[in-house]
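Handout, tutorial session.
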Amino acid sequence: MSIDFYPNSVYFVTSSQNSEFDTGIRFWKLVPSKKENTGKCPIYEPQHQYDLQGGHQSTVNVVRFSPDG
């Protein structure tokens, strides 16, 4: 499994292998939590945005954002 955050943002991408037909490349966004927050630091939860299959036929071991986006 691999994870990478987009620089200075709330977006991140993950990769994993769920089956031979699902390479598991997923794009996520951190959204403010609806849970009660008693602290001063905001709480965020991951929200699945969409799958990025990209025509890969085998496992994707590492995902990274380009430094320039």
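The second record follows below. Compare its token runs with those of the first.
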Amino acid sequence: MRERLTANILLFGRNLGRWGLPINIIAVLYSLVTVVFSFFPPSVLVTAESMNYACAVYGGVVILGIIYYALRGHKQFVGPSTELDIED
């Protein structure tokens, strides 16, 4: 984590330079706000017709993802390569 906050340059891929950390912080904050507010109902008096079912759909997708990973995904997953070709 310390390397990400200092001026050290990553050896793989492209980076955003000094703007990388502020952009990532803004992206995480924006995502948190949108996810939290997407679960709120559209009105104060909630009925079965006006209920926001986004939370139920999200939970269902998470449960299906966990089941898929437990049954099949953990056998197929290949992690990222840790070898770098560095030419001097």
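Points raised in discussion: Residues 1-38 form one domain.
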